[in-house]
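seq as requested:
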Amino acid sequence: MIKAYLGIDVGSVSTNVVAIDTYGKVLSKQYHRTNGQPMDCVKKGLKALKQEMPDIEVLGVGTTGSGRQLAGILAGADVVKNEITSHAAATVHYYPDASTIFEIGGQDSKIIFIKNKCVVDFAMNTVCAAGTGSFLDHQAERLRIPIEKFGEMALSSTEEVRIAGRCTVFAESDMIAKQQFGFSKADIIKGLCEALVRNYINNLGRGHELTPPFVFQGGVAANSGIIAAFEKETGCKIIVPEHYDVMGAIGIALLAKNNIESKGIKTQFSGFESTEKDIQPKTFRCESCSNSCEVVEVVYDGQIAARWGDKCGKWTNAVTKQPNKTLAAV
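struct tokens:
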């Protein structure tokens, strides 16, 4: 049997499932497009993992990302944490001296400040899509360039072209204008990469001193043009981890490992057979007081597994008191 800890990162664009060994080495990683069906993707990832590693023994499991609560219920998570904590945990595991984390995903971006291996501050951008993977995908499609070639073309540029990068609308309209002026695609792409990095640092890094070592992760870290733009803007070498695309999943797996080992407890993992069970979330509004809370209720395998969203804890505590594992604790 291969003993392993699982990390599940459920995001708006992708769902990642990672298995690490007892030393923290990545044994397997599964990437699936979420496509608005996060639980189906979690099930798909767990099934793929089991097929790849049929003799796996799961010692612990953690979930993170925007869909962490539901994923935690499905998998029987031992640890459920936010993306900031998970990304930081993975980064300091591989790079103990890391000071600043640049993380850009499909739909949002974040910056995390580390001191003595601990998160001291962070900032997130979930409103504007400028600089995210989805925006770069859109521009690559508009320019009829494979996204895999985007960074390579940026590095081939020989001219400086400044692109407005404050928002997606301004950036796209400025790119079109530059095309009409006769600038090459390579020059425009390089200008776009630099504009997006300026926008990222000005917005998320505002009021902070950016100090190296810098670690860049998330799906956009595959873009060499963005990496070059970060190095130009910061004047420092940018570190891109080997598993830059699944650092959140690795981090939550490491946190699950630490939790299990430090407490000497057994995992609550539901088993791979949980992929055959049904999980359905729904909402209702509580009218017991003037707060009128919108409560999320999750039915798992025919039973109410968890509720959250109520400010007073009326509904949450009602589920917690039920002897249904500890699913409501997530």
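The first helix runs from residue 38 to 52.
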